[in-house]
Amino acid sequence: MDPLYILDKFLREVRARQDDLTEVLKTGGVQNWEQYQRVLGELSGLSSAESIIIDLQNKTEQEDVS
């Protein structure tokens, strides 16, 4: 299976989850402070994962060009 396909698929899933969590925050879907902190923590982790995936995509694309 193509590594770029896998990275792209994973990136789409990460971004979809980020969108879902952002929507929860926008619509007041958190019940308490602990849940709010949990959502922010997950968003932070997803943001880090997104950066790692993008870096891997760029490296893989550069290797394919070489």
Key words describing this protein structure:
66 residues, mainly alpha, 2 helices, 86% helix, elongated
Plain-language structure description:
The chain is an all-alpha fold and 66 residues long. It is built from 2 helices and no strands. The model has no long low-confidence stretch (mean pLDDT 95).
List the helices and strands and how they pair.
Elements: H1 3-26, H2 33-65
Helix pairs in contact: 1-2
Give a brief rundown of this model.
By secondary structure, the chain is mainly alpha-helical.
Query: Can you count the helices?
Result: 2
Largest sheet: none
Radius of gyration: 15 Å
The strand count comes to 0
Report the β-strand fraction as a percent range: under 5%
Helix fraction, binned, reads: over 70%
